[in-house]
Amino acid sequence: MKITVDFEECLKDSPRFRATIEEVEGDVCELESKLDKLVKLCIGMIDAGKAYNAANKQFVSGIRELAQQSTKDEVIESSLTKFAESLQEMINYHTILFDQAQRSIKTQLQTFVKDDLRKFKEAKKQFDKVSEEKEAALIKNAQAPRNKQHEVEEATNILTATRKCFRHIVLDYVLQINVLQSKRRSEILKSMLSFMYAHLTFFHQGYDLFSELQPLMKQLGGQLDQLVVDAAKEKRDMEQKHSTIQQKAALQEATELDSLLDCRSFSAWRSTSDFSNDDTKLEYNVDADNGIAMEGYLFKRASNAFKTWNRRWFSIQNNQLVYQKKFKDNPTVVVEDLRLCTVKHCEDIERRFCFEVVSPTKSCMMQADSEKLRQAWIKAVQNSIATAFRDKGDDGEKLDRKSSTSTGSLDSGGETKERSLKGESALQKVLAIPGNASCCDCGQPDPRWASINLGITLCIQCSGIHRSLGVHFSKVRSLTLDTWEPELLKLMCELGNRVINQIYEARREELGARKPQPGDPRQEVEAYIKAKYVHRRFVRRPSDEELQNKVVTLSKQEKRLSSSSEHLPPKAPPPTPKLRPGSNVSGQSVKSADSGIQNSADGSREMLATTPSNNSLADADAAESPPMPATLPPPSPCKEVVFYEPKEYSSGLQLYWASCARSLPDMAEALAHGAEVNWVNTEEEKRTPLIMAVHGGSLVTCEFLLQNAANVNQQDAQGRGPLHHATMLGHTGQVCLFLKRGANQNALDIDEKTPLTIAVEAANADIVTLLRLAKMNEEMREAEGPYSQSGDETYQDIFQDFTHMASNDPDKLNRYQQHDPQRP
User: Fold this and answer.
1) DSSP one-letter string for 776-824
2) Where is this region: Disordered (predicted)?
């Protein structure tokens, strides 16, 4: 009820006025109490709402984590992600609702209480004070004696002044009361109406959100019914399979037990046991799709002093015997080539079911779980040996059906291409490099193995030791059995044993370390190789001044190379690599080109055979107009690369500038000094050595960094990876290399551009063709299934053509720079 006070009544100061004043004051006091309580309750509600939102956010985060863990199940991942997004929107709506409650209830009503009620209380204090003064004046005026005129006049004057002040104060007080009574209605209704509208908006937004989500929920409901039916069917199938296998195992055990009790011979027992162990593959199949002829668990005797036995998963694949401790571990090679080994029973040791595989350099003792399994493994090894010899005899230089597991080959198809160098071709070219005719570590002549990330040749014993170091130290490949990609062969010809030994054996004589000789015990050779490559004890550490001079020299060398490349004479544009008739890329037909690629690839082999092992670019700077070496394409001018004075010099900075200057010996030296291959230059937009190698324009330096575990997708401060930079610079050969090495062509830079977008804007037909072909091949492989390795033959042929042009005739891929040399 609204209580107002009449202004006329207040001047009379009647009892009715006083009663009204008391009623108003009591009502305002109660109003203040209720408003304070409501504000406190609102604060509690807001705090509880914030706690609810925080808990709800954690719940949504748990849903997102579950979705990320279910990446292999597209339905669960997409559904949970959508649900998490919707719940996050509801959390945002709740946050808005609580903010509105704070503004409309808490803030607005607190302001009303603090401002308007405070003014009322101040006016009440003044009214009470002047009322008391008026009452005192009246009493004094009434008590003034008639015969004392001066006291009468004084009392009269005080009463007159007090009444005048009272009328002024009481009018202000009544005005404040009436204003407060009028404002309380609007303030309370305004705040509550605002709060209710916030609720209305909240529920409208929630309704709209879940209306959009409803079709998906209905669709998932239908799928859920089918999933329940499928799960029940799968359960029945698995129960049937479980029962069948259980019966099969019981029958096998009964058959074996009867055979043993009858004391029949092993051959008779084997003939009655027609049931193979379900946990072990007993059949030998050399033409298996995955290249694994046989696999299963065996106990292996260690070569340590205690001769401990460990259970490992063995397999025969690609004419090699390998084993793993865990599925994700890289296979450890026991026998490099089964043609060089023999297998025999071992009956002179205490353990049963043992057999031994003996190679020219070592022997491996293994134990099967039963006599049947031992015979199966021995037969499998013997069949692999026979198959390897037969394949060798039938096809001379025939390669293994699959690449060696340690080669790191990244060809998507896995098939051998005619123009890929192999066998004696690769052997002759690599051994022609000075120092490569003997093993890098022990000096054994006529090596047949190589470490592709170090660029050295090895004998069979040292190659086995290098394999045991792990691929992060050395990647071993056969010079006669494996296929060699052109860029990898050029990498081998750029380095060589002489260059690497100058780095890794710089302090060997100073420390008095003896280098192994052919025929030394394996333990001594292994200790020396670990000291050389793992611990790097013989590497000479440069002083700060030497390191600074090296970095400055490399930066100047890079500038001279860039300036000299700006004046290279233009050449006629080459033909585009041929597509098969009817093939197309992204719906665009590609015309058949002239057949000059094969000729260029053949002609380059003569050139490559005479390439020196250490093509020091610093020597080329001394000449006025030096011819560019055959193994390094002319670099593209890079105006963005500017040498600066760094805060401190490091081996990472040396690798950074050596990559741009295309100096492989200096890069190898930096890695030997402990440089991080993915070192980031924070003062140069977070660029990496691989990005600088792209700007240097050399395919071989990029290959060298990739073989030493450089991240092909690491981005700079602009969000651009090596593939972005190679596309912007028009380096077609590098684009081809990065795509083969798994570069992500869907990556976006800070301008939201992919490499394909950049190539299309630059009208670079070659790079657009490569990117679209790679995308098409990836989609085809995904459509064929997760285990498909074949890909499209057109894609493989085109990439082979670009690979050979980039390695053997790089000028043919410089059309982009020739047509528009001012483009960055």
Assistant:
1) HHHHHHHHH-TT-----HHHHHHHHHHHHHHHH-GGGG-HHHHH-TT--
2) 392-421, 549-635, 802-824
